[in-house]
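Q: Sequence in, structure out?
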Amino acid sequence: MITAIDWGKVERKKPLAPFSTLHAGGSAESFIIARTPDELAALAIASQKEGWDMTILGSGSNILPSDDGVFGLVVVYQAQSITVDPNGMVHADCGSLFQNLFLKTAQAGLQGLQFAVGIPGSVGGALVSNAGAYRSEVSSFLVEIEVVYNGERKWVPPSFLEFSYRDSLLRRPNPPKCAMLRLRMKLERGRAKDVFDEARDYQRQRISKQPPSASAGSFFKNVNDLNFAQSLDFLPDRFKASGVVPAGYLIEQAGLCGLRHGGAMVSRLHANFLVNVAGATATDIRSLAELVKRKVKATFGVTLEEEVLYLGDWSAFEPRLNRPLGS
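A: Exactly. Output:
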């Protein structure tokens, strides 16, 4: 276990585009990889006690770093341990891939995480955004999370993160300085064949709908509003009944599929994917996102909210919407 930051392992001005699935963004002021919970804990304790800015990345699937870079220390957390007890208790490092967590639990005959198949993020990233799909979400299965908070390493209950739809305490403006190390969750037993059959169905749906180009996954959150859902003639009955309006439907109906800004484009395959098709900058991508939000607001009267987190220095950002936009 390290007890302080080993500055000999810290890199300066490290480009972050390779650590983002959008393949865009500037550089980290300082950068280091943490490969164990102890390493991340030591970094978090030091940074919290000294008041340094620290940003933790997993697999980079739900983030967009600013072209102007990210202040402070950026830590890529790569701890990968996952263990499953016969009683259904699961222990996982938050640097583990979310899909690997599903695979390990399914192989052990546990059910509940089928929705995670094909989701490219890390376990920690899944917690930050309370990842979910197909009427399930990760917070439903949590028992406790090990964190570093206020310079102290401890286990906390799920209520500490104040989960809600695609949201947690760590996504909100000015979030507390908190590093997530590991989790414990409890899953129920199921038939392995049934678990994998359901997961394969979800995977087929994802493959048929999701574009292969570089993206952050779903860029915007769905809209939860029963009255709004029931007012939309084009919305399938299952969504009207649940009151969920997928953001992709609104973007598509606003006529934005195929819309480009610089190297960024609204996918024709899935309208809630903003894809990097030609060396897009982070500014290109966020500018396109702003245009999508404005068009959807003008068409339907609702404001879309990003699932993607904007990291770093966006203080000088202004949407570059005067550049040519075309399909």
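The chain has three domains: 12-77, 82-194, 212-321.
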